[in-house]
Specification:
This protein is an alpha/beta fold. Helix content is 34%, strand content 23%.
Length: 332
């Protein structure tokens, strides 16, 4: 099987190749793709060195699958070209997520959304993935009425630039000024930035509206009311979320815990323990803790959700989609 990784030299692209190896995906030929500036580089995969190639070269080789993590514009321009030659594209950007004819998939929840006719499949936003993993079993049992979420998102969500800026600021007495280091217009070290992506006319950011729209699409319920605030924090890896959920039907807190514990890919931590980014980095599970009834509203709970945004929030979820499609093909 030929697999192209578009954006292979980036944070998520590297992590995709790592997860492909860890999950023993049967890759006979890897096609690492990056910009022309990266030509001449090699990546190591399965103890072999593979030369980085351009998108044009990768397309000529007609891969069976292409994992895209090179930005929305690259995906808009090139995913249809790969799909046209019979390649199945799993795209990590925001380009195709809300397209009506493109499935937006978290494998534990809605692999059924993918049909044999689909050639472009969207990977959800990192913060959305970890939230819906916890929401899904509860929605199926109690039906969600309303969600209020605040996120605490690590700098790796901004790619290498975000990590570079935090490291630079931690080592300097003044704010980073080099344009090749800056991911944010404000200092991130010893600071919080309540803006991720651009502001829209409604006062929310694109990141916040992604959580609204993507959650409804994945859970297949446009009636869910969702309000989101997304915040960048000076943490290297690992996104955290405080989530308040109100339900249409009566809930029982022990059953809530049991439903979450039994859902694949979710780990529940009970007090006095709770998940934190340091303990979740490098893990594929979504960790949930501090689950408690909301005393201010009927049939409502609060919970704390943590996940590695580079793995389950991006690379692992994409590879799981690929894995599921392989298994489905073998079964047929």
């Amino acid at each position: 099987m030929k697999v192209a990784v578009v954006g292979a030299t980036g944070l998520v692209g590297n992590k995709m190749m790592e997860v492909l190896q860890e999950r023993h995906i049967p890759v006979a030929e890897l096609i690492p793709v990056a910009s022309t500036k990266q030509l001449g580089r090699e990546v190591v995969f399965q103890n072999r060195k593979w030369p980085v190639v351009t998108l044009e070269t990768a397309l000529e080789r007609i891969p069976d699958f292409a994992l895209f993590s090179a930005g929305a514009q690259v995906s808009l321009d090139w995913a249809p070209k790969f799909a046209k030659v019979g390649c199945t594209v799993i795209d990590n950007s925001s380009a195709w997520r809300m397209a009506a004819d493109v499935p937006l998939v978290v494998p534990e929840i809605n692999m059924h959304a993918i049909t044999p006719a689909h050639r472009i499949i969207a990977n959800p936003n990192c913060s959305t993935i970890q939230m819906v993993m916890a929401l899904c079993p509860l929605h199926r049992r109690y039906r969600i009425k309303r969600v209020v979420v605040s996120t605490y998102q690590s700098v790796s969500g901004s790619g290498q630039k975000g990590i570079n800026q935090l490291l630079y600021e931690q080592s300097q007495t003044s704010k980073a000024t080099s344009s090749n280091l800056l991911a944010y217009t404000h200092p991130i070290n010893l600071n919080l930035i309540p803006q991720i992506d651009l502001f829209l006319d409604n006062g929310y950011t694109k990141e916040e509206m992604k959580m609204v729209n993507e959650t409804r699409k994945i859970l297949e319920d446009d009636s869910i009311a969702i309000s989101a605030t997304t915040v960048r924090v000076p943490v290297m890896v690992g996104h955290c979320e405080t989530v308040n959920v109100g339900f249409h039907n009566p809930i029982e807190i022990e059953e809530v815990n049991a439903l979450l514990r039994s859902f694949p890919g979710v780990v529940v931590e009970r007090l006095p323990n709770y998940p934190m980014p340091l303990g979740c980095a490098g893990r594929d599970e979504v960790f949930v803790g501090r689950i408690r009834l909301d005393p201010s509203a009927p049939n409502a709970i609060n919970m704390w959700i943590v996940a590695d945004n580079l793995r389950k929030g991006a690379a692992t979820n994409a590879v799981q989609i690929l894995e599921g499609m392989i298994h489905r093909k073998c079964a047929s």
